[in-house]
Design goal:
Helix content is 9%, strand content 25%. With 79 residues, the protein is mainly beta. Strands 1-2 form a two-stranded antiparallel ribbon. Strands 3-4 form a two-stranded antiparallel sheet. A hairpin with a 2-residue loop joins strand 3 and strand 4. The chain is elongated.
Length: 79
């Protein structure tokens, strides 16, 4: 796969647009666009999973309540 490709810019209404060649297609139907100096960077929106959500959360610092006292005593069961 080529890492560079010459493309043409065009107008779509009031917006400037570029067609993304098939070898550069992004997954999904959303992207994030931002500037990096003179560069325009387009990145796919990554769907966040549980691990990413947990990683982004602040650590839980409050002590957990002691609920063992309210539970019934365990007893041995013969099977």
């Amino acid at each position: 796969m080529a890492d560079h490709r010459h493309v043409k810019l065009f107008r779509n209404g009031r917006n400037q647009a570029v067609r993304i060649p098939v070898e550069f297609e992004l997954p999904g139907d959303e992207a994030i666009m931002h500037r990096d100096g003179a560069r325009l960077v387009i990145e796919p929106v990554r769907k966040r999973g549980l691990v990413a959500l947990l990683d982004s959360m602040e650590p839980f610092t409050e002590p957990f309540p002691d609920i063992d006292n309210s539970l019934l005593q365990l007893r041995d069961v013969n099977i």
